[in-house]
Amino acid sequence: MATQNPGNPNAAAELAQALTTLEPEAVVELLRAMRAQLGEVTPLTRSERQLLLRRSKTSNPVLQASINMIGAHDQVSLAVAQPADGVRRLYDEANRWTAVEDELRTLLEGVAGANLVRRQRIALIAGQAYNIGTQLARDPANAVLRPHVEEIKRLKRVSRRKKPGEAAPSPPPAPSSVTPGSPKP
């Protein structure tokens, strides 16, 4: 592998090219190891996340002014049980971790997009195989393909059926025979 020059702006690109592409299982192992090293990872339910987002909606100027108030008087610092410097460090840390959030979100979207493209390719190849197999199965010399074609047809029919919980929408109620102003039956 080539030696790395810290001043070289292309060092990361050279390193990426030098490394082999990771297998999915290796990526999962790396992510799990990284998660273990992060320490504070807090999975939240959707409702918990929404509640915390609502509670923490405070503008940066208000946050800064509040932190300054903590530092301005000892009674405020004692009341919140936090020194101003500690709150500033927490604020700085939260801001730095947003960069991590953004990178992870970008990585996740990239992986999901690549996997969607893979699935689309697979579907295209499967469709081509089915069409070719259907054509070849017409010839008695390729009779071995007929059971495969029939199984695919059966599976396609099954997948198009309505699921038990997916009942067809009910028709709108019939108009009432009662006209406004007339007595109800």
List the defining traits of the structure above.
185 residues; mainly alpha; single chain
Strand content: under 5%
How helical, in percent, are the residues?
55-70%
Mean of residue pLDDT?
A: 85
Instruction: Specify Rg, calculated over alpha carbons.
Output: 31 Å
Number of alpha- plus pi-helical segments: 7
Distance between the termini: 91 Å
Parts with pLDDT < 50 across at least 5 consecutive residues: none
Structural classification = mainly alpha
What is the makeup of the main sheet? none
Tell me the overall shape.
elongated
What's the SSE pattern? HHHHHHH
Number of strands: 0
Describe this structure as you would to a colleague.
The protein has seven helices and no strands. The chain is mostly helical and 185 residues long. α4 (60-72) packs across α5 and α4 (60-72) packs antiparallel against α6 (84-137). The longest helix has 54 residues, at 84-137.
What would a concise description of this structure say?
With 185 residues, this protein is an all-alpha fold.
Task: List the SSEs and their pairings.
Blueprint: H1 11-18, H2 24-38, H3 46-55, H4 60-72, H5 74-80, H6 84-137, H7 146-160
Helix pairs in contact: 4-5, 4-6, 6-7
